[in-house]
Amino acid sequence: MIRVLLVDDQPLIRSGFRALLDLEDDIVVVAEAADGERGLALAREHLPDVALVDIQMPVVDGIEATRRIAADPALAAVHVVILTNYGLDEYVFHALRAGAAGFLVKDIVPEDLLHAVRVAARGDALLAPSITRTLINRYVTQPLRTSVGAGLEELTGREREAVALVAKGLSNDEIAGRMVISPLTAKTHVNRAMGKLRARDRAQLVVLAYESGLVTPRAR
Fold this sequence. Notes:
Blueprint: E1 2-7, H1 11-21, E2 27-33, H2 36-46, E3 50-54, H3 62-71, E4 79-84, H4 90-98, E5 102-105, H5 110-121, H6 129-140, H7 146-151, H8 157-167, H9 172-179, H10 183-197, H11 202-211
Parallel strand pairs: 1-2, 1-3, 3-4, 4-5
Helix pairs in contact: 2-3, 3-4, 8-10, 8-11, 9-10
């Protein structure tokens, strides 16, 4: 079962998402919270696989809640998916940088919500290539973070190649095809790179790849 935590200050949003998710045989909503502070407490209590977290909330907002979840070793298995009304905005990018696995717009169709929860639970990033390009064009074209770039020295050549392909929005199967290796080997390269760069998940790996200069917007 995929265990989901809902964190949103709008009761109608929470009830609608719960009603949809609870209909699925492989998904269960374990708890709800109306603010980020309560959401953090419930995350520690229930250890959900996926936390659907609104950006704008009272007490503790979604970005800070995401940052605290990502920084807590006890919550390493919790994948945060940000909920937003506004699509691609600066808050979404800050949330991804803080450790979110991806984001959803609240008017998402039911099928896409269910798919997103399952993708996040697997540890994959909710970043389609078109979304990645838009994020990079708008928010990552800024001075490089040298502390991130230094971590690239630990990567092998094949790991760097795999990271660059992840940053372009490719799946493990697509990476395998580009690198002419098996999907399992592609996954191994990606996972080892995540470990060396201390990336929480693939979404954070995308951010790190661009911030370090390993991939540039012109290199799509």
